[in-house]
Amino acid sequence: MIRITKNWAEKLAPEFQKPYFKDLQKFLEEEYSKYDIYPAMENIFAALNATKFEDVKVVIIGQDPYHEPGQAHGLAFSVQDGVELPPSLVNIYKEIEDDLGVKCLKTGNLTRWAKQGVLLLNTSLTVRRANANSHRGKGWETFTNQIINLLSQRKDPMVFMLWGSNAQAFAPQIAPQHLVLKAPHPSPLSAYRGFFGCKHFSKANNFLAAHGKTPIDWH
């Protein structure tokens, strides 16, 4: 039903056998058959398929996919080419430009980050059209929590960017070898409370460089 790369499938295999995930599959089959659900079924695991486990350098955690037509394609905060930038992504780009002194590309497709090792992971991987958080509490949180646990257990250091209270709830389970960066969510409602000026992108690149890793080209 859902495509997932072998690299992640092997690590997450125990989850697929658990009752909660089987219940989630049944729920999704019904939802996709009755409603417009985003992203398209083949893109549910796009974030995992774009960034292998051992290649992850930075983890950015979102909430659930954009819920309007043509936007979501499986990467948190990202939209497909040609789609107007959502307000949160506009603010992310603004902070990058202010922090790093670069000019971001006009496209909101963040696949270019994913290919460099940025895991753009939503807490819930699906949503019903025009109904934010409609798939919350159906099992996705248990699944994505396990992804964070697996990454936390990796000895190789990485950066976790936790924006907003939803993402920051993961902080206690992240091991000390990793860099945890916290800030308010970049949405227009909260960006001015401390997301702007957080300098997470330069801090992440400095951490990566200090650990012998190639920094991310955030533009």
Q: Can you tell me about this structure?
A:
36% of the residues lie in helices and 11% in strands. It is built from 8 helices and 6 strands; from the N terminus they run H-H-E-H-E-H-H-E-E-H-E-H-E-H. The chain has helices spanning 6-16, 19-34, 46-50, 87-100, 111-114, 140-152, 164-168, 200-210; strands spanning 37-38, 58-62, 118-122, 127-128, 159-163, 179-183. It has a 4-stranded parallel sheet with strand order 3-2-5-6. A two-stranded antiparallel ribbon has the order 1-4. Helix 7 (164-168) links the parallel strand 5 (159-163) and strand 6 (179-183). The radius of gyration is 17 Å and the shape is globular.
Strand and helix layout:
Elements (H helix, E strand, L loop, with lengths): L5 H11 L2 H16 L2 E2 L7 H5 L7 E5 L24 H14 L10 H4 L3 E5 L4 E2 L11 H13 L6 E5 H5 L10 E5 L16 H11 L9
Parallel strand pairs: 2-3, 2-5, 5-6
Antiparallel strand pairs: 1-4
